[in-house]
Specification:
Layout: E1 2-3, E2 9-12, H1 15-18, E3 21-26, E4 33-36, E5 42-47, E6 52-61, E7 63-70, E8 79-84, E9 94-99, E10 110-115, E11 118-124, E12 130-134, E13 150-155, E14 162-166, E15 173-176, E16 181-185, E17 197-200, E18 205-210, E19 213-218, E20 224-229, E21 244-247, E22 252-257, E23 262-267, E24 273-278, E25 283-289, E26 293-298, E27 304-308, E28 310-311
Antiparallel strand pairs: 1-2, 2-3, 3-4, 5-6, 6-7, 7-8, 8-9, 10-11, 11-12, 13-14, 14-15, 15-16, 17-18, 18-19, 19-20, 21-22, 22-23, 23-24, 24-28, 25-26, 26-27
């Protein structure tokens, strides 16, 4: 879940619930709105700068689309890139660009998705030019490709290198798109999660989740600074945390906990829990809006949840 700079709106999409629809909640409304964006199997959302965000439309076929949006009219597509295969996987992909290509300078430049028979990297430069790369290191000799998909890519500040996350793997790959090679593998908390990353610019840090842990890394060395377990094991075994977001000028980390029915706030410097919002159900994605209101989506149903963030 991502929010706008003013903390008045949140957008999200849970693939198994929303399919090709975008979930939007505006602070003060009684309920969220659902906007149809495409007939894709599911969407993934990435935050940009100045309230712009991008949406990846996944079809699991010989097509993938990335569309550009702004929080002022989240349902409106400002520009879009459609990638279609012309043969030989993504090596000969056709890119169809529509709309205002100036918007891409405000958006992330790296995306991943399954198309053309495998997972690929989709690179978009600030003027709207795009390319596609296959991952040579992602093969059956090193991964169980039926069990371990590629789940995300993170750009590193002041570097052309990328961090590529693999499902059920605590060792994301540091990847060089210029030479199309794996540089090295990182080590998180060893929990076999589906790592997602966020940059904490103010402290030159990268934050990641690893199943039931949150992990803080140095953004320069990519070494782990600290890890913290946020979800205790249940009677049936380990239990994962939900999505996290850096809030309040990167001083607070909000983490959804599906198995506790809440979202907690961590002080970003000390990683100590300082706040909690009781939400009920099983919140998987959460965001912090004005007046310390936490909004969230239930894991299995996508039901809208909300509560107040209070000091723990």
């Amino acid at each position: 879940m991502i929010t706008n700079c003013a903390g008045t709106q949140a957008v999200c999409s849970l693939g198994w619930v929303h399919k090709g629809n975008l979930w939007v909640y505006k602070f003060g409304d009684r309920s969220p709105h659902i906007h149809r964006l495409s007939d894709s199997k599911y969407l993934s959302v990435k935050a940009g700068r100045n309230d712009f965000f991008s949406v990846v439309h996944h079809w699991d076929a010989d097509r993938l689309e990335i569309s550009a949006h702004h929080h002022s009219e989240p349902h409106r597509t400002i520009s879009s890139m459609i990638f279609r295969s012309l043969g030989r996987g993504g090596a000969d992909a056709q890119v169809i660009l529509t709309g205002d290509n100036a918007v891409w300078q405000e958006l992330p430049h790296a995306y991943v998705g399954y198309a053309f028979g495998d997972f690929h990297l989709f690179l978009v430069n600030p003027v709207g030019q795009a390319s596609v790369q296959a991952f040579d290191w992602y093969d059956n000799a090193h991964y169980d490709k039926g069990y371990q998909g590629i789940v995300g890519v993170q750009e590193i500040p002041n570097s052309h290198l990328l961090i590529v996350s693999v499902q059920r793997d605590s060792n994301p790959v540091l990847y060089d798109p210029d030479i199309r090679k794996e540089v090295k593998k990182l080590s998180l908390a060893g929990r076999g999660g589906n790592p997602r990353f966020q940059v904490r610019i103010s402290a030159s840090e990268l934050w990641a989740d690893d199943y039931d842990h949150i992990v803080k890394l140095d953004a320069m060395t990519l070494n782990v600074i600290e890890t913290k377990q946020l979800q205790e094991a249940g009677t049936a075994g380990r239990q994962f945390i939900g999505g996290f977001a850096l809030c309040r000028d990167e001083r607070l980390c909000l983490v959804a906990r599906p198995f506790n029915g809440d979202a907690i706030g961590l002080d970003c410097d000390s990683m100590r829990q300082t706040h909690r919002a009781a939400l009920g159900k099983q919140p998987l994605e959460a965001g912090l809006l004005g007046d310390d209101t936490v909004v969230a989506l239930d894991w299995k149903t996508g039901r809208f949840l909300h509560g107040k963030l209070r000091k723990a």
